[in-house]
Design brief:
The protein is an alpha/beta fold and about 450 residues long. About 45% of the residues lie in helices and about 20% in strands.
Length: about 450
């Protein structure tokens, strides 16, 4: 008699692969939808893409000097000094990282900005920074901001688990300056407000003039690109002959097909109905999507059938992380010893090779969708910039998914090759490390130059 369980399991996995698949035809539709949302966002019409002007252009590569940078965009906050030599080199003599307490992430805005300034004070003291001098500083604030000038912008909405009160709708530079005054720190001149994506573009384009698209693929996801000012209809006072970096806030793009698992994740999130694409692409959410599917597999009796505590363990949100997925999918041993180690660390001992293979296969399904969606979004922006690919394009990408997740970059390049064939060779995806740090300092240099404010 044939055991029906393996047949049913394979049938369900085939269903999952189809459910999470992103075909070339899907991507072409997505690109058209992306372009429509971009156009509406640039015009100031209602759109899932905010298309926020940064009021600054790419660097020339000749900017030089010493600058300070702040980086707030995740669970850690950084303060760093960056030296630019005007020849494409950006060195970091001093850098400090501070873990942000959850009480400050989810407390009051005053407490959050006081924490930030406290970190700055520690940095200045520990590195013996001369407080009698004035330092130009850029603040990388990696959340959706309605920017009104190079050094002013109001937080539209918190993301990434932040909920600090009294910040949404307020100018974050004003809040930072108020906190600096409370701490009596007078040696800092904030010249620029930057998004980590804009910093990523600035960091790569400082050494590579072909870079016209900056992308974040890590805890969250976003992108920015260089746009002709004449196409930014909502800024009718801007010089129509100039250019400006536009922060897309593409994590909020909502013209994507969601699954029942995506809906479960969204419902349980701190921002239901928002950041639709980010919840399908970024490291903050991939582990959770995988956990939700794994729970379904356990309930159906397809995996971990000999491990009765499994359902209880994986019932807890966050019990499967994207870092776990990375190690599981990257296991190349014959008997998937790395996958076994993940199970053993979590108290499971009777794990079959079949279980390990299924979990690795599940991780691959979820990560592949993420990579293909990311590549689709990149394709949409590149074809907006250069529809016929007449030029070569470098895409600077920062973030742990792109940098560290096994095979993620390859999956993205596969999409470009499927879409454009030989023309895909004109597109280079490169890791643009520390756009939120070095890139912010480069933006500070551009803003502090004689051309600050003129794009």
């Amino acid at each position: 008699m044939i055991n029906a369980a393996p047949v049913a399991c394979e049938k369900f996995f085939a269903y999952l692969e189809k459910l999470f698949s992103i075909s070339v035809s899907d991507i072409r539709v997505m690109i058209d939808d992306f372009h429509a949302e971009m156009g509406k966002g640039l015009s100031g019409d209602e759109s899932s893409l905010k298309m926020i002007p940064s009021f600054i252009d790419k660097p020339k590569g000749t900017e030089a000097g010493e600058f300070l940078a702040l980086d707030l965009g995740g669970t850690n906050f950084r303060v760093l000094t960056v030296r630019l030599d005007g020849k494409g080199n950006a060195n970091v003599p001093f850098a400090s990282k501070f873990a942000i307490p959850q009480k400050d992430m989810q407390g009051t805005g005053v407490a959050l900005f006081d924490f930030i300034v406290g970190c700055i004070d520690v940095f200045l003291t520990e590195n013996h920074v001369d407080r009698s001098k004035t330092y130009d500083l850029a603040f990388t604030f990696s959340f959706p901001v309605e920017q009104t000038s190079i050094a002013a912008g109001k937080l539209i909405v918190w993301t990434k688990g932040f909920t600090a009160t009294g910040v949404q709708g307020h100018d974050v530079i004003l809040l930072l300056n108020e906190a600096l005054r409370r701490k009596d720190i007078r040696c800092i001149n904030i010249t620029a407000l930057a998004n980590d994506t804009v910093g990523t573009l600035a960091a790569r384009s400082y050494i590579d003039p072909a870079c016209d698209l900056g992308v974040i693929m890590g805890t969250g996801t976003n992108a920015c690109y260089r746009e002709a000012a004449s196409r930014i209809g909502k800024l009718n006072t801007v010089d129509a002959h100039g250019h400006m970096i536009v922060n897309m806030e593409w994590g909020n793009f909502d013209k994507v097909r969601v699954t029942c698992y995506d809906r479960l994740l969204d419902k349980a999130s701190v921002n239901p109905g928002a950041m639709v694409m980010e919840k399908m692409v970024s490291g903050m959410y991939l582990g959770e999507i995988t956990r939700l599917v794994l729970m379904d597999l356990i309930r159906r009796g397809f995996i971990l059938v000999n491990e009765t505590p499994a359902a209880e363990y994986f019932q807890e949100r966050g019990s499967l992380k994207t870092e776990d997925m990375s190690r599981i999918e990257g296991d190349r041993t014959d008997r998937l010893d790395g996958v076994a180690l993940f199970f053993e660390r979590n108290g499971f001992s009777n794990i079959t090779l079949h279980d390990k293979i299924l979990l690795q296969r599940l991780c691959r399904i979820i990560s592949t969708r993420a990579a293909r969606l990311g590549a689709a979004a990149i394709s949409a922006v590149l074809t907006w910039i250069d529809p016929k690919f007449k030029d070569v394009h470098t895409v600077g990408i920062d973030g742990s998914l792109f940098e560290k997740y096994p095979g993620f970059k390859t999956k993205m390049m596969n999409v470009l090759e499927e879409l454009y064939g030989e023309k895909a060779e004109r597109i280079t995806l490169v890791h643009a490390k520390d756009g939120s740090g070095k890139g912010a300092a480069i933006i500070a240099a551009v803003a502090a130059s004689s051309e600050a404010g003129r794009v």
